[in-house]
Design goal:
The structure is a homodimer of 458-residue chains. Helix content of chain A is 42%, strand content 17%. Chain A is α+β, with helices and mostly antiparallel strands and 458 residues long. The first copy, chain A, folds into 2 domains: 16-64 and 101-355, Bira Bifunctional Protein, Domain 2 (BirA Bifunctional Protein, domain 2); 366-457, Anticodon-binding domain (Rossmann fold). In chain A, strands 1-5-6-11-10-9-7-8 form an 8-stranded mixed beta sheet. Chains A, B: It holds the Pfam family HGTP_anticodon.
């Protein structure tokens, strides 16, 4: 191979620094998931195709990565589709497996498959990569991690209250203050559709309403009319154009607006329960806000909907989202399993922490001291000390070769290693070590216990 | 979907207990890799096919999972191969990507691709899944994790000494005492081949010699002759049939036996360096042993070869292996990069720890206390306490629904949660909590600080 090797578009190599930062975020998410009683599961990277296909719509089916059958796959290929060169139809006869597209469908499959071993309500979390054949662009990759926490088997709204707490706890632990947890409810959206008398126009309506800040009330109304929403309907939901105030005030407005809709009224009650109890418990650093334009995954969710926006100083889309779904496992034949869950967007959280310089320095702390190599006898003396230092939890390395001093010190410098340990003839004779601070140049001669103490403190 | 869903053969779902145990092993491996100065990298799950194909031999090429191109893949399919229904030849025109087969080739690709950003010698570790279309059987899966540590850019034998230390350190930390780190050297095998005058018979020779314990000296010799190794050759290496004693004694025997081979003599010197320095440093719980029949990956390694056997009480194959390779990155155009590395076999280590009951109980520790749900007012009181307990790092849960007491307690029992916290009208009135030990049935009434203290201690 003559040309320099590369990786597929939309995928990434992660350097040591990047891995350390990503693990830092995952570890905080993981430990807080567990504090809230979520238990980890892991599912295979690929599923049987019929587990995934048809679960994400036509677009999703197209974006699922299919794995070619092993061996003589053409022997079982559908002859007619092969003849017609019909790629789409041929696929199912030459590919039986596919890479998972999200963690939700595999979770539903897991719950149904293992229903007899699971104690419900089942609180699970899952932190694993997913793959999508999307067109790669800034912040969108073909391989990326999802971090999901879901509860199935209980309709209790206390779960929603806890999930708001969980968002607040994780982002507080990450030092990311001032995120906004936006909340809405699918039933409120249904109520609005009912009131405007146009269920099929609901998405057009929320998309237009969402532009209020940008194009003003007149602009929004103009767009709504262009989309076929009547003047009369717009008049009925006029309060949504001045939808300000505290959450309580907003809920009050909605309550009046949706009084004629049973579904809408139910949504208001759910929202009130979640918001009132969240207020009583309090949030550390996050802000809870009601956003009636929030409409993610309309077909999927049936109750509360969540989305998390980063602090306003950062120009970035949502860094988390989720909601309540009444029938997740129904697709695999297990009915009446209400569930609710949230997800953390690892890649975007990474970018936000990077932009705001919120990664603690210790996260990328590498080897603490490099032992300089003066030859085999000295290296053995160094290794004996290193063995004990490592037992004390200290990260140390020996420069592997007896290279020129300048080269060895340069290596420590380029690696960002803070200390060099010099143990040559003189030091060995006195059972000591010269410890050099590579930032200041200061050098002290110490015995082993002192060496250990200094490295433990730094 | 009517039938119960399933997963592809050779893949696995991991339950919460299994995930916890696997993470425990990985965490110990990871933290010790870092103590030894290895830095983590991660590479994409799939690589361009030409990065992987042809690197693992014909058998390997067959076992690599290929990903079908997205969209109208048949439009670019090779017409002749399609016409002839030649599955093998057609593959490259309908599949450009493939799942990684191991971590070594992607690592070599990473080093070459990022050579200008890397400071050499480069000590990297990588813990990620790999995929092989192997026939699944006990202990062999189509998706499994590899845990690799390698150093590239230095020929120093101190690396080999450190890798022996690393094996000892990790297995000691896992509580797995008495593993045998078997060592050999590719140059010694070359020397033996030279001495017996039959390089092409080397594998037959080592395979036969390895059966010494089972079929005895006569049996081994009979097999060697059947394989076409001459009486004369067998006579020349007669000492290998009584190859016992300490490592030093074995090295002495080899030194004499291979005196006529430059390559063999070099191998003996390398082996002596590694073994003597390992002896001077000492091993905590592992045993280092020289095994001249050890011949893993003959074509791949060029110096030391390692393999780790579990304690003799466990019937299980090797739980780790590795060695020195002089030209890993040459396949991607970067010459003269000597490397050496070892791998830990996660799945087998898991089975060994399970069999010997070496997983600490705390590994699978789940939620510490379940708060019983007596209704919304009581739940809010519980949640307020839980919020503070979680801030103190304690894992607690609220039973989500106001279900019958028996059902709630049964849930705690089935989940293995050790405590229930009862906070009903009486407790709320006195700002207290009844804490029930579910194993003993003992119940005490305490204030919040005491509740926290007890849970922190348990």
């Amino acid at each position: 191979m003559a040309s320099k090797p590369s990786i597929p578009k939309g995928t990434r190599d992660f350097s040591p620094t990047e891995v350390a930062k990503r693990h830092y975020i995952m570890q905080i998410i993981r430990s807080n998931f567990e504090k809230f009683g979520f238990q980890p599961i892991e599912t295979p990277s690929f599923e049987n195709s019929d587990t995934l296909m048809g679960k994400y719509g036509e677009e999703g089916d197209r974006l699922i990565f299919k794995i070619l059958n092993s061996g003589d796959y053409l022997a079982k290929a559908n002859a007619a589709h092969l003849e017609n060169k019909d790629s789409i139809k041929l696929t199912s006869s030459i590919s039986e497996k596919a890479l998972r597209y999200d963690l939700t469908v595999p979770f539903a499959r897991y719950v149904v498959q293992h229903q007899n071993e699971i104690e419900f309500p089942f609180k699970r979390y899952q932190i694993q990569p997913v793959w999508r054949a999307d067109r790669p662009q800034k912040g969108r990759f073909r391989e990326f991690f999802q971090c999901d926490a879901d509860v199935v088997g209980s309709a209790s709204l206390w779960q929603e209250v806890e999930l708001v707490q969980l968002y607040d706890t994780v982002f507080t632990a990450l030092g990311l203050k001032g995120v906004t947890v936006k909340i809405n409810n699918r039933k409120i959206l249904s109520g609005i559709a009912e009131v405007i008398g146009a269920s099929d126009k609901l998405i057009d309506f929320t998309v237009a309403l969402d532009k209020l800040d940008k194009i003003g009330e007149d602009g929004v109304k103009k767009e709504m009319i262009e989309k076929g929403i009547s003047q009369d309907a717009i008049q009925k939901v006029q309060p949504l154009f001045h939808f300000t105030g505290t959450i309580s005030e907003k809920i009050e407005k909605l309550s009046q607006l949706l009084a004629s809709s049973d579904e809408g009224t139910k949504g208001v009650a759910e929202l009130r329960f979640i918001c009132e109890n969240s207020a009583k418990l309090g949030l550390s650093t996050a802000i809870l806000d009601l956003d009636v334009t929030l409409a993610r995954g309309l077909n999927y969710y049936t109750g509360a909907i969540f989305e998390v926006a980063p602090p306003q100083s950062v120009a970035m889309g949502s860094i988390g989202g989720g909601g309540r779904y009444d029938d997740l496992t129904g697709i695999f034949g297990l009915k009446n399993m209400s569930g609710v869950g949230i997800s953390f967007g690892l890649d975007r959280i990474y970018l936000v922490l990077e932009e705001l310089q919120l990664f603690p320095e210790t996260v990328t702390a590498t080897t603490q001291a490099l032992f300089i190599n003066y030859g085999d006898a000295e290296a053995l003396y160094a290794m004996q000390a290193m063995q004990l230092l490592r037992q004390a939890g200290i990260k140390v390395e020996l420069y592997p070769d007896n290279a020129k001093m300048a080269k060895q010190f340069q290596h420590a410098d380029r690696r960002g290693i803070p200390y060099a340990v010099i143990a040559a003839e003189t030091e060995i004779a006195t059972k000591s070590f010269a410890l050099k601070n590579l930032a200041t140049g200061a050098q002290i001669v110490v015995d082993f216990e002192c060496l250990k103490a200094v490295l433990l403190q730094n």
